[in-house]
């Protein structure tokens, strides 16, 4: 996606003005303008690199805004000021549908082109690039140019990048708007610096003890521990990392998602608090016709206003889509008269404060206090709700969604009718939950958790299909062919039901991680941790990735590529044992094509059918 022509013209006006000013202040060599009186792209890139290269140089932006040498408007100066939060770094760009995402420290950042689609400027996708990400007009763009690294990632690494995007989406780590980028910028920069500092410290330690280490590998701190002790040590390390997250930073991050000014007391007032990007998303969701992307904020409000839910049933439906936590938060608000106040000193976890749920409630932060307000017209509609019944319903639906997610995670493709029968007849779910509105609710749940499952149609019969099968597939037809291929392979193989053990484990990969084959593989990796890898999580990360890829069919060469990507380059002497361990592991993983059975289990499953 690209900016509208009017937006692009405005961006260039502001960016070019800043470039001219920064060129003079920084004294970068070379002539800024070419023979045609235009700014030279190469010289502009040098200015960009230096301006965002150090925190000290960013003070130039403050000076530019204060002096306003080009007589820009107040709105344009505000955009320029926000660019202090720009992120200059190395990114992996991945296209998904019509969008391009920049992968960065576990986050996926939605990126707009300026006047042309970003991937038309690059040789390959996914692509490794260096640039500066900037907030602009509610969107996220790049600082005029991108430098592409001459690296052909190939299908395996490309698939891994797609998987990282899926993981970011599944973990809700997607940054879509300029406001979100501004709020998250410091956290992202700090996380990137911390990663590099940790890598430097590990390398320094190894350099000081080079004689005691095998080249490229060392014996990790978890080597020799039995599975139970290893799990205890890893869990303790995970807790220590979580405890190290500063409370003040948590409050700062929560406050960044809050709204400013006087609280909105009506649903229409809530619309006025939303930014243009949020209003556009709402307009698309409510089916507003016309050029939504070209509408001004006032026009968007007027277009959305008649479509915003206002009745009791409509407001409840918005709440229900958010799941149990939203139900509990809205109940808390209603029972408190539409107002919940939490002081900074009372914040213990991220769930201490009610997150904004437009148009039902917005949260504001000022003078060390989080204030969540429900509009009076929404409160009037929700006063007489049976909240105990709503919570029971939310818990029941949460279990339904969990079971459906696990079915798809286990078997790859599940016919919806068969899934409903399994829910009722195997897991004892109440059939009244699965009424005629179930499919619509399921589609909303799939959109909210798109990395787990999506609703598709195969020969007009609805099915649930794991979106991980979409790796490398750029169109719906290709995805459908993958679905058909899995269904054909499943044939008459018996269906592996979701067991109580799997429901407790939460996800298939984590369950497989506990089997002997996985434990043997991790024990070997603990003995041969790459120098730059994290001792505590290297073996588990590699094993989980191979398990995940093994859900479909994976050959040993692809598993070795996974190891290579994590820095493990096996010697010839290690290769035989390593391949043996990989084969044992992949044969113990439930396969989609086997209807959820591992190859080692399938013969027993068929025999006991």
Note the topology:
Elements: H1 5-26, H2 41-51, H3 59-67, H4 74-82, E1 87-96, E2 99-104, E3 107-111, E4 127-136, E5 139-142, E6 147-148, H5 154-170, E7 174-175, H6 178-208, E8 217-218, H7 227-243, H8 247-256, H9 267-273, H10 276-285, H11 297-304, H12 312-321, H13 324-335, E9 339-343, E10 362-366, E11 369-373, H14 376-382, H15 387-411, E12 413-415, H16 416-425, H17 438-448, E13 454-458, E14 461-465, H18 476-490, H19 500-505, H20 508-512, H21 516-527, E15 529-530, H22 538-549, H23 556-565, H24 572-587, H25 599-607
Parallel strand pairs: 3-7
Antiparallel strand pairs: 1-2, 1-4, 2-3, 4-5, 4-6, 8-15, 9-11, 10-11, 12-14, 13-14
Helix pairs in contact: 1-2, 1-4, 3-4, 10-11, 13-15, 21-22, 21-24
Model description:
With 609 residues, the chain is α+β, with helices and mostly antiparallel strands. Helix content is 51%, strand content 12%. A hairpin with a 2-residue loop joins strand 1 and strand 2. The chain is globular.
Euclidean distance between termini CA atoms: 51 Å
CA-based shape: globular
Count of runs of 4 or more consecutive helical residues: 25
**Which residues sit in consecutive blocks of at least 5 with pLDDT less than 50?**
448-452
Compact description:
With 609 residues, the protein is of the alpha+beta class.
What are the defining features of this structure?
alpha+beta, Arc Repressor Mutant, subunit A, seven-stranded mixed β-sheet, globular
